[in-house]
Amino acid sequence: MHIQPEVSLKPHNTFGIDVKAQQFVEVHQLSDLQTLLKEQQQNPTPLLILGGGSNVLFTRDFEGLVAKIKLKGIRLLREDDSNVWLEAAAGEVWHDLVMHCVQKGYGGIENLSLIPGTVGAAPMQNIGAYGVEIKQVLETVQAVERSTGVLKVFTNEECKFGYRESVFKNIYKDQFVITGITLKLSKKPTFNTSYGAIQEVLQTNQVKELSIQAISDAVCQIRSSKLPDPAKIGNAGSFFKNPTIPFTQFEQLKQAFPHIVGYPVANSQVKVPAGWLIEQSGWKGKRFGHIGVHSRQALVLVNYGGGEGSQIRQLSADIQQSVLQKFGIAIQPEINII
After folding, report:
1. Same domain for 263 and 306?
2. Do both 168 and 194 map to the same domain?
3. What is one Pfam family matched by this protein (predicted)?
């Protein structure tokens, strides 16, 4: 490992925020990570674990050590007539893993195509899109405990997955470093095409025979049409979670806002698209100097170049306040703000 002083984090976060890490290191081996954590215990300094940087907003320089996880590897553990068990290291690019599975004919994560970030971040917030969440196919998470350097294995149940939630974001926050995951995927997949515009795109593409490749292509097409490419415009995808509210509150809102959109979920709750709430509050396409709200998707806050993280944080707070005043609904960031 080579620890570097005073490194710009601009190339390491998809918002493209130009802040510095006091120290920076890339971790390519599990043993290096364990060594690093042991040294941290002996000489405690602030430590930030970074994956693809696609779910983080830096608002200041980081006074400590930033460790970028670069653990690599995808391997088949076992298989039977119906399923395969696949292990993927935390530093793999998530979309690359999806493409690997699509090409091999392993079904289960094709709806999660083109989600930015690394494999290690996927279970952290239970990534999901177009009717699928990673918890539906995840068997185990491998993670190193920061305080001991010991590698532990968490079952799906032990991860306590929720909507963009897991134990790694709450009760075990900053206590473990995810090093890999194991997925159970299907050789005889059931196709999920009911969410969003997937069916419409499949018809437009004149797909005659449904396949995981066709679904992945459709999802990529939809995401590319709605979401800006971080390589061109700094962003971290969806900035806010979709809030859930009681059915009774939704019915009251429907009287005042007849066109409000909502999807029934468990326990008499309704999930309301945060993008719709933000758009109806007048934010879509608004630009404020170097930052703004994307013109095609109100969920996405953008850095046009030269913007500061503190400005984006303030914009997000203004949006939250605006939505709360108009609809009485509190929306929360799904981005990690540092």
Report:
1. yes
2. yes
3. FAD_binding_4
CA atoms lying within 13 Å on the CB side of residue 320: 15
Expressed as residue numbers, the domain containing 191 is 74-226
CA distance 158 to 329: 31
Domain count, the chain: 3
Number of neighbouring beta carbons within 10 Å of residue 43: 6
Contacts of 238 (CB under 8 A, 6+ apart): 274, 275, 299, 300, 334
Q: What's the confidence (pLDDT) of residue 248?
A: 94
Chain segment 204-251, per-residue pLDDT in tens: 888 888 899 999 999 999 988 888 888 899 999 899 999 999 999 999
Q: Is 238 a catalytic residue?
A: yes
146 catalytically annotated: no
Is the domain of 55 the same as that of 93? no
Residues 270, 212, single domain; the answer is no
Catalytic pick among 113, 146, 164, 281: 164
Q: Is 164 a catalytic residue?
A: yes
Among residues 113, 216, 238, 316, which one is catalytic?
238
Active-site entry in 92, 110, 308, 334 = 334
Tell me if residue 278 falls in helix, strand or coil: helix
